[in-house]
UniProtKB/TrEMBL annotation, chain A:
Keywords: Cell membrane, Membrane, Transmembrane, Transmembrane helix, Transport. InterPro entries: ABC_transporter_permease (IPR051393), MetI-like (IPR000515), MetI-like_sf (IPR035906). PROSITE patterns: ABC_TM1. It holds the Pfam family BPD_transp_1. Belongs to the binding-protein-dependent transport system permease family. It is a multi-pass membrane protein. The keyword Nucleus does not apply. The keyword Transmembrane applies. The chain crosses the membrane at residues 21-40, 80-102, 114-135, 163-187, 216-236, 268-288. It comes from Deinococcus sedimenti. It comes from the Bacteria. This is Lactose ABC transporter permease.
From TrEMBL, chain B:
It is found in: Cell membrane. It is a multi-pass membrane protein. InterPro entries: MetI-like, MetI-like_sf. Signal peptide: none annotated. Residues 86-276 form the ABC transmembrane type-1 domain. This is Sn-glycerol-3-phosphate transport system permease protein UgpE. Belongs to the binding-protein-dependent transport system permease family. It comes from the Bacteria.
């Protein structure tokens, strides 16, 4: 690097202009090769028809196909349904849990934390298998419990809406604890005396939660919302392993459709277009979230 | 666990203590069933790994351990060469975690503690990609790794592309910002090199954050399914999740085998997490989400 250091800072920092660049270099090389370039490359690829025998030139055929593709529309619809139900459900539960876990009245906090974090430790393949067992129509424990309660049994994995419910439950089971731990860390960053002052002023716990905890927790919540939304937009493992995108295509997501187009049909151009549609959605959602509750972060 | 906090001095009357006791009871009554619900699939996995399939699917599924662990394990090993997959997973996850910690903490340190031309642009660029789904890169990554670099079925194929860990850099930068500048300046005056300042002074200070990051990185790598599934095509190169995935996909699913495999893959983590969980929350608090 031959860049001249402009206006040397007053301290002795000017002595070592090379060090930070060298520190960043290894990461940057990986970042450029395996992230930055692929992001560009996949954009270019989305304009190429990569099917066998197709002309090699650039065009908008993939994007045109996307607009009229029934399967894409189904995948998009399913993904958005899961997103709209699962993320709020999970984050409400996670926030409630975090507040409970942070309570000074709670005994054996370590044990509870462990219980709620434990699902994350179980691999995706493993918990998918467990959920397939739990919700099996013939011998699943869930149906046995329903029967025991005198309720009708449900053929969970072979009907569209129940299959969707299983996916949502599985994701909630797996990721609630993770978000709760992040939110718990956020809660612990809120100084105790804020609450003491409020209590002296006569604020009820309920008021304290809505008027103080939630606003102070906003940056952390935003972090969780953005990551959860992006994660859900790319949902792959659960529908692939629990329901196999079925019944029919009832639980096919943008993730499983992209996998099918890219790595089953090896239609890289079209898969890239799908990927960019996901990215566009992620950008829209992130932007909306930042506008809605961002402000200071 | 931790000592009960003394109630604020002057104000509280007996009624407050009574109210607290009632709330505490309700809190536990609500949390215990929920905690059991969260633990149930894990428990089932452990229990089922020790029973033959006939027991798993019997009208009264077992709730306690049985004696078929060895039998299930042998079936699993025969179906998938599970030990090989476990070995692959271990090498990949350990290498990935160490390399990723090194790369992200080096870069995070530079972003947190140096003022250099281009810093904000570079960091902004890296941060901006945080909201780009990994899906966007997966196809070019595959072409690069499999076709151009011809690395299919190697450890590097799994490790290299995932090293560009944006969250890690964000996280380590936050952690290093808590290291006092004076500490580094003092070392500099004593003539320590920048590498030494990073390695021997700054890094030890952020050890809790590093530990938390290590757990998250290791977990992510250990449980990663999609990317290894794409770049590993030969049975001998499979990681543990890919090997188990081949069992789930079959029409004749070998449940006992899957449960054994997942139990073996899970138990070390449960132990690790139990041992480190206190530091883990503290580490997250000190790193990722300090706004």
């Amino acid at each position: 690097m031959t860049t001249v250091n402009p206006a040397p800072p007053p301290r002795r920092r000017a002595r070592v202009p090379l060090a930070p660049y060298l520190f960043i270099l290894p990461y940057l090389l990986i970042f450029a090769t395996f992230w930055a370039w692929p992001i560009v490359s996949s954009f270019l690829m989305s304009f190429k028809d990569s099917r066998l025998g197709a002309a090699a030139g650039y065009g908008v055929s993939n994007w045109q196909r996307l607009l009229t593709d029934e399967f894409f529309r189904t995948a998009l619809k399913n993904t958005v349904i899961i997103l709209v139900i699962q993320v709020p459900l999970m984050l409400t539960l996670a926030t409630t849990l975090a507040v409970a876990l942070n309570s000074r009245l709670l005994r054996a906090r370590g044990l509870f934390r462990f219980a709620f974090f434990a699902p994350l430790v179980v691999g995706t393949v493993a918990y998918s298998a467990v959920f397939r067992l739990l919700f099996n129509g013939e011998f699943g424990i869930v149906n046995r419990a329903l029967a025991g309660l005198g309720l009708p049994e449900v053929d969970w994995l072979n009907q569209p809406a129940p299959a969707m419910a299983v996916i949502i439950l599985a994701m909630t089971w797996r990721w609630t604890g993770y978000n709760a731990i992040i939110l718990l860390a956020g809660l612990q960053g809120i100084p105790e005396d804020v609450y003491e002052a409020a209590a002296i002023d006569g604020a009820t716990p309920w008021q304290q939660f809505w008027k103080m905890t939630l606003p102070l927790l906003r940056p952390t919540l935003l972090f969780c919302v953005v990551l959860s939304v992006i994660g859900t937009l790319q949902l792959f493992t659960e529908p692939a392993l629990i329901t196999n995108s079925g019944p029919g295509n009832a639980t096919m997501t943008l993730g499983t459709y992209l996998y099918q187009q890219g790595f089953r049909s090896f239609n890289f151009g079209y898969a890239s277009a799908i990927a960019y549609a996901v990215a566009a959605l992620a950008a829209v959602f992130s932007f909306a979230q930042l506008r809605l509750f961002g402000r200071d972060s | 666990m931790t000592a009960v906090k003394p109630a604020p001095a002057a104000r509280p009357m007996r009624s407050k203590a009574a109210r607290d006791r009632a709330s505490a009871t309700w809190l536990h009554l609500a949390l215990i069933p929920l905690a059991l619900l969260f633990l149930a699939p894990l428990w089932m996995m452990l229990v089922f790994s020790t029973h033959p399939e006939t027991a798993i699917f019997s009208p009264n599924p077992p709730l306690w351990f049985g004696g078929a662990f060895k039998e299930n394990f042998d079936g699993l090993q025969a179906d998938t060469n599970f030990l090989r997959a476990l070995g692959n997973s271990t090498v990949i996850s350990v290498a990935y975690t160490l390399l990723s910690m090194l790369l992200t903490s080096l870069a995070g340190f530079a972003f947190a503690k140096y003022n250099f031309p281009g810093r904000n642009i570079l960091f902004g660029l890296i941060l901006a990609t945080l909201t780009i789904p990994t899906f966007v890169t997966i196809i070019p990554q595959f072409i690069l790794v499999a076709r151009d670099l011809k690395m299919s079925n190697t450890y590097w194929a799994v490790i290299l592309p995932t090293l560009a860990n944006t969250i890690g850099i964000f996280y380590m930068r936050q952690a290093f910002q808590t290291v006092p500048d004076d500490l580094l300046a003092a070392a500099r005056i004593d003539g320590a090199s920048e590498v030494r300042i990073f390695w021997q002074i700054a890094l030890p200070v952020v050890r809790p954050a590093l530990a938390a990051l290590a757990i998250l990185l290791f977990l992510a790598s250990w449980n990663d399914y999609l990317w290894p599934l794409i770049v590993l095509t030969q049975k001998d190169s499979y990681t543990m999740p890919v090997a188990l995935g081949t069992l789930v996909g079959l029409t004749r699913v070998s449940w006992g085998g899957i449960m054994v495999g997942t139990a073996i893959a899970t138990v070390p983590f449960l132990a690790l997490f139990l041992a480190l969980q206190r530091h883990f929350v503290a580490g997250i608090a000190g790193g990722a989400v300090k706004d």
